[in-house]
Design goal:
- Strands 2-1-3-4 form a four-stranded parallel beta sheet, with helices on both faces. Strands 6-5-7-8 form a four-stranded parallel beta sheet, sandwiched between helices.
- Helix 1 crosses helix 8.
- The protein is built from nine helices and eight strands.
- About 40% of the residues lie in helices and about 15% in strands.
- The longest helix is centred in the middle third of the chain and has 18 residues.
- It folds into two domains: about 160 residues, Rossmann fold (3-Layer(aba) Sandwich), CATH 3.40.50; about 120 residues, 3-Layer(aba) Sandwich (Rossmann fold).
- It is an alpha/beta fold and about 350 residues long.
């Protein structure tokens, strides 16, 4: 009898129903690309099905080897700690399955080309009245308390800048680290370029992407002499789906290692020395399955989500970010809110 292999796509989860639908489309795209595998998906928090539900479904359909991939661009706390903790717990409770964990999408030529396509699409809608050499690109990443993940966004920025032949490029983040979107755009305006393209390097829509576009509109209103163009996020670009399929194949071939050379949990990374050796644990168990309009998106017959009323302001026990007070960092948003 041929052994059945299941694929589990592990997402973060969102209260935004559009983001949940877009994540579902990734699973659907993988099913099309890899018909030899039984594909399912689940979320850490704020949406259903939760990861454990998807694992249950794969196991109940007879899959005894499950290839789990993080549905994330870069390896920060969610991919390094939260998802492995959920998978390890499930593995310990079910010795009749083997779960093998893959790498994040990461820095990959396909991902860079997908990003380049999104920027090119934005430039095409803007017209050719401004030269590329007079265009500034701002790439906005999610932002993490992991400097290695943040540095990957900066590398994407440079690859796009040089690859597309743009005049200048800057990197910003939607939260946690610095510079945040609004101050980064204000600094970009000072460079004097007549056109600024803002590109959210995100997989899916959600509150953060909408906030990036809102800040772009806010800064654009202050500087009517500068043309601001909002590029689309990655979504289910064919090359993104191809990269997900590659990550599954990497597990099978054994070439699925994350880049741990600059991981703050394993190396003495400048400014984050106190986090070496922190325990690998998930901080999301109390918000599994919550959100998305108060109704279930669970496509299975059962769910194990916790019925809890936490918002995204719930108390995680993450290690404190050492640069929270940076003038362009996360606490600046609180100060601006207090001023209002």
């Amino acid at each position: 009898m041929t052994e059945k292999f299941g694929v589990m796509v592990c997402g973060h989860g969102s209260r935004d129903e559009g983001a949940v639908r877009e994540f579902e489309s990734v699973a659907a795209g993988l099913r099309t690309r890899m018909p030899e595998y039984d594909v399912d998906y689940g979320f850490l928090e704020f949406a259903t099905p939760i990861i454990r539900t998807g694992l249950d479904a794969l196991r109940e359909r007879g899959n005894r080897t499950i290839l789990a991939v993080p549905g994330m661009l870069f390896a920060a706390g969610h991919a390094k700690n939260d998802i492995p903790s959920v998978l390890n717990t499930y593995q310990a409770q079910h010795d009749d399955v083997e779960i093998r964990y893959g790498a994040e999408l990461g820095i990959d030529p396909k991902m860079i080309n997908a990003a380049g396509n999104r920027v090119e699409e934005a430039l095409a809608t803007a017209g050719d009245d401004v030269k590329r050499s007079d265009t500034l690109l701002v790439v906005v990443g999610r932002g993490a308390s992991d400097p290695d993940a943040n540095s990957n966004v900066a590398k994407i920025t440079r690859m796009l800048w040089e690859g597309l032949g743009l005049g200048w490029a800057e990197t910003a983040y939607s939260g946690v680290t610095f510079p945040l979107v609004e101050p980064a755009l204000e600094q970009a305006v000072r460079l004097g370029f007549p056109r600024i393209v803002v590109f959210p390097y995100f997989l899916f829509t959600g509150i953060l992407v909408k906030r990036i576009y809102d800040y772009t509109d806010l800064v654009a209103a202050r500087h009517p002499n500068v043309e601001f163009i909002k590029a689309g996020y990655l979504n289910d670009h064919p090359l993104v789906l191809d990269t997900f399929a590659d990550r599954v194949r990497n597990i099978v071939s054994g070439d699925n290692a994350m880049n741990c050379q600059l991981c703050k949990y394993r190396a003495q990374v400048l400014g984050f020395e106190s986090e070496v050796g922190l325990a690998q644990e998930s901080h999301h168990h109390h918000v599994e399955g919550i959100g998305t309009g108060g109704h279930s998106h669970d496509h299975h017959d059962h769910d194990h989500g916790h019925d809890s009323g936490h918002d995204h302001g719930h108390m995680h026990t993450h290690h404190p970010y050492p640069h929270a007070d940076h003038p362009m960092g996360p606490n600046s948003m609180k100060k601006a809110s207090d001023a209002d």
